[in-house]
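Before relying on records like the one below, remember that each one covers exactly one chain. Contacts with other chains, cofactors or solvent are not represented anywhere in the record.
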Amino acid sequence: MSDDILNDVDVDQDAMADEWAAAMAEQEDDSVDDSPTMALDPLVPLSNGGKAPDIDVILDIPVTISMEVGSTEITIKNLLQLNQGSVIELDRLAGEPLDVLVNGTLIAHGEVVVVNEKFGIRMTDVVSPSERIKRLR
């Protein structure tokens, strides 16, 4: 690739990033912050000689984020009868928030947004760590 083409790609990516940031900022301005506050646990002395854990070790580990619109259970017989144009009824109502999953674990709920003809998701509710632990049981 020539330098001109590379520069155009960089400019396009920068412009798209700026547009996403502006759209997200606009949505934040429009929304009302009615999120509940969460009480913090008291500080506990570290058991590793006063050193804080090195979180940098895990920051580069890739995770899979997925959005779940809904789900349903059907028999294999009905599954084999599906073809183009078939409709499968899901367990969600229209307009209900989507589940945001990280490696299959529910971490938040959100709604679909469209910016520059691409889909995204705006987090509307983040599941607390204690709630995530309850859902594992």
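The domain at 58-137 is CATH 2.30.330.10 (Surface presentation of antigens (SPOA)).
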